[in-house]
Amino acid sequence: MAQRPVAIGRSLGYLAAALLLTLLGVPLLAIFLRAGGGVLPGPSDWAALRFTLTQASLSALFSVFLALPVARALARRRFPGRRMMVALTGAPFILPVVVAVMGLLAIFGAHGLLNTLAAQVGLGPWRIYGLHGVVLAHVFFNMPLAVRMILQGWQGIPSERFRLAAQLDLSPGGVFRLLEWPMLRQVVPGALAAIFAICLASFAVALILGGGPRATTVELGIYQAFMFDFDLGRAAVLALMQTALVAAAAILALLVTRMDGSGTGLDRALPRWDSPGGWRRLADVLGLIAAGAFLVGPLVAVALAGLSGFGDLPPGLWPAIANSLIVSLLSALTTVIVALALSAAQSRVVQGIGLLPLALSPLVLGTGYFLILNPVIVPGRLALPVTVLVNTLMALPFSLRVLAPAYVRVEADFGRLADTLALRGLARLRWLLLPRLRAPIGFAAGLAAALSMGDLGVITLFGSADRQTLPLLMFRLMGAYRTEAAASCGLILMALSFGIFWLFDQGGGKSNA
Amino acid sequence: MKHLGFVAGCLLATQAAAQTPVLNVYTYDSFVPEWGPGPAIEKAFETKCGCDVVFTAAGDGAALLSRIRLEGERTEADVVLGLDTSLIAQARATGLFAETDVDAAYDLPVAWSDKTFVPYDWGYFAFVGNAGEDHPTSFRALADSDTTIVIEDPRSSTPGLGLLMWVKAAYGDEAPEIWEALADNIVTVTPGWSEAYGMFLDGEADMVLSYTTSPAYHVIAEDDSSKQAVAFDEGNYTQIEVAAKVASSDQSELADRFLAFLVEETAQGILPTTNWMYPAVMPAGGLPEAFEQIVAPGKALLMAPDQAEAARSGALEEWRNALSQ
Q: Where is it located (chain B) (predicted)?
């Protein structure tokens, strides 16, 4: 691609969006064709749909509204360890699901820290299993993501605005009304839609913490249809239902969002002069401590559980780490390229399209690609490219949500200047976009790399004995009673995911966060 | 470009080995790791056959069958290893499997006469708890007790499906009542065995649905005799794991030899302490000592494949209704 001069422009963005729609639509079509049509959903599917909608809506609302005060505190306070805290907020989101659930149970489970402490003072025991447990877990996973998205919005407000606010001695209420509210109208609907879409496809978390078949999600129905009943028609219809929900969420977000923008600044980092003191300061401190404890507690539990099993780890660990790193880095690269291309459209419709992969689980995509490839080549031979492709699609919604608004802002702030200088194509990419977008690119690449690292992906369909990845090794250890070794594997996975995320995020530079 | 390089590498690697005959065996995930039965069985068979055995792992037994059905006649698999009694009817209906003349003096809890599916190991489903505690010994006693259990989902895991069939085989039309009575004992339902067993080890529940052989693992591998499986008065449901030859295989004779090898002394001696199941044919040296201490259910329950397949969707509906209230 690098040899050919490509115009970095809107047409490229629309081209990328068309490619994305094809990559998503064709597998679904392949499944329908193979099934010879759809199978209408039964009563249990509608029940699953109801539960899915309920838990995803609640999870999105709680995640975003709890993230608001945390993001605001991070935006207006400066304290030692703040950068670390911002980086750490990425951690739960990139954890493999099973590892995170074990961490949550160590805090909130029957013998978890909370119940142990409560028992000391004669309270409890509290049961985590039920809708509240599902929402709790989803907030744990997604609140950090919401914090990052909203924090980015706050940092997108030019510092001159805040300086002016301080000079005018605006009350915190005034700052909120004039500066923060317009920004939130721009950022919050997107965050809500993204997290709603993520939680829609939840399956293991919802089932384990939901406490039984009451907590059946549509995704479980899809898994059952593929893996147990081999009912491709039903799987395809359920996948279509999920896609419709995500599309509806994306459209709703588009309608509600107001893209007023905060206008242009000189892109200077300045201290926040307007940070209110008094009780607001205390509230910020308490909010940050509470959020920090909620997010870090389960991570510490995972780390502690993993310490004892290192001696029992099999030699296959090293090739597994290497395989995971290769998949992860390749996926990060392709994700950033595609996300940049999509961002170039500077279109909110394209951003909405970028959410759609969330609706199609790796299972649906994997099966679709499998059906397409099978008549041509043994699908197992394309395990690596297909894994990278599916991981890219899965990470794309997050990377795009980070990159696209930043892209729009850069073009709004500096686009006219670049036009005057006749910066076009690759030159514009090199001199304007890449330098200005370093931070979001770093964050987006880090997210993609970490997500791909922890993902089991399409390995069941395309995997083979000699292509073991780290999450697969962990599952195999768990499946062979080797719980301690599996916990150590989980710790290594967490450390690697977080490490690679941190490297990219830091590499993205200082201007952001 | 990077992608193409990888693809080319994969293709070349497969072609280099094309001189010796290759036997492709599709199996479930826990068969292939270095601590599983796969590597030892591969090595032992390769010294005899002058061939190259290639294992491909595909999730669990159900996922394995789905994969074969997706690939259809074009599959590279010569042998599929790892289906069980509740999947046999579905597998047979695909028409993708061929009969074989492999036979042996099986030590199974039921008589075996199937010409297509060769049993290689078996076990009993059981609730496993901590030794020294007073465990209920029937579903009714369990339902009346305060004992908490974590179980697997019959829609996504073979042990979960086994439990569903267990209750159905033991109670027939009364199964819905049993499930309703069990509802308040069930802490939660997990997608697969690993999560359930992990939660039990972490103390989230008193007992977990697993196998009677589970305590033997802890004794042999960890020198830990703190786990105990319980024989139920109704009997325990049996799981028999089978392998079969793929009809479209171009290595039909080699596949037959592999299936025969699977039920011979060497392979049967490897399976108990790597797959943690009973051997289908008792090896001359008998079982490891820890296996002798395993609780023996008074009665082995098992539905015939066709019967199990016919009962499945109805039983699933009952299960879901009883537990969704």
A: Periplasm
Indicate the SS3 state at residue A261.
coil
Residue B181 binned pLDDT confidence (cut-offs 50, 70, 90): very high
The verdict on whether omega for the bond into residue A125 sits within 30 degrees of 0, i.e. cis, is yes
Residue A499 and residue A385 share a domain: yes
Instruction: Give the count of domains, chain B.
Output: 2
Percentage above 70 pLDDT, chain A: 92
Tell me the H-state helices in B24-173. 37-49, 61-71, 88-93, 139-144, 158-171
The answer to whether residue B5 is domain-embedded is no
Task: Looking at the structure, tell me whether residues A124 and A158 fall in a common domain.
Answer: yes
Rounded to the nearest angstrom, the gap between the alpha carbon of residue B84 and the centroid of all alpha carbons in its chain is 6
Q: B188, A330: Cβ pair inside 8 Å?
A: no
Looking at the fold, whether B197 and B310 belong to one and the same domain comes out as yes
> Which pLDDT score, from 0 to 100, does residue A158 have?
79
* Paired tokens of B260: 């025969």
Alpha carbon of A77: minimum distance to chain B alpha carbons (Å): 40
Distance from the Cα of A373 to chain B's closest Cα (Å) equals 10
Query: CA A64 to CA A60: how far, in whole Å?
Result: 6
Rounded to a whole number, what is the distance in Å from the CA of B27 to chain A's nearest CA?
A: 10
Contact criterion met (CB < 8 Å) for B58 and A463 = yes
Q: How confident is the model at residue A8 (pLDDT cuts 50, 70, 90)?
A: low
Find the angle CA(A463)-CA(A466)-CA(A468) to the nearest 5 degrees.
65
Kindly state whether B32 is in contact with chain A, defined as any CB-CB distance less than 8 angstroms.
Answer: yes
Claim to verify: residue B156 and residue B45 sit in the same structural domain: no
**Helix axis angle, A131-156 relative to A181-200, nearest 10°?**
140
**A375 — pLDDT class (breaks 50, 70, 90):** confident
Chain A nearest-CA distance from B299, in A, is 26
Q: How far apart are CA A139 and CA A199, in angstroms?
A: 10
Quick one: A205 and A332 in the same domain? no
Is A111–B57 a contact, with Cβ atoms under 8 angstroms apart? Answer: no
- What is the pLDDT averaged over residues A250-270? 66
If you ran DSSP here, which 8-state letter would residue A126 be given?
P
Residues B223 and B266 in one domain: no
Q: For chain A, what is the mean pLDDT?
A: 84
What SS3 state is found at B268? helix
Helix (H, G, I), strand (E, B) or coil at A172: helix
Residues from chain B that touch A464, judged by Cβ atoms under 8 A, are 54-57
| Residue A166 structural domain | 43-217+277-303
Q: Indicate the residue among A243, A268, A303 that finishes a domain.
A: A303
Which pair of structure tokens corresponds to residue A70? 């945390």
Please indicate, yes or no, if residue A243 is contained in any of the structural domains: no
First to last CA, chain A: 32
Q: Are A170 and A178 in contact (CB under 8 A)?
A: yes
Mean local confidence (pLDDT), A66-84: 87
Which of A228, A464, A470, A488 best tests the B interface by mutation, with the highest count of B CBs <10 A?
A228
Spell out which residues of chain A touch residue B71, defining contact as CB-CB under 8 Å: 374, 379
In a domain, B61, yes or no: yes
